[in-house]
Input
Amino acid sequence: MTPSPDPQVSNPTHQVALVVNGVFLLENLRLDELSSQRAYEFALIVEPLKRVGGTGSTVAPIAIR
Output
């Protein structure tokens, strides 16, 4: 939910998913090539940037069939 109804809270949905429920969020994945190849089952490897003290980063997702 952006903007937040409370100006003191930024991205409350992300905060609840990540902090409260421990859900990792992946957004804007391009899955059209996997879908066109009918690759519905695969191992997903996600490599985040190495950041000390970071709470999030861009990732390099890899799908292995």
Summary: The mean pLDDT is 85. The radius of gyration is 15 Å.
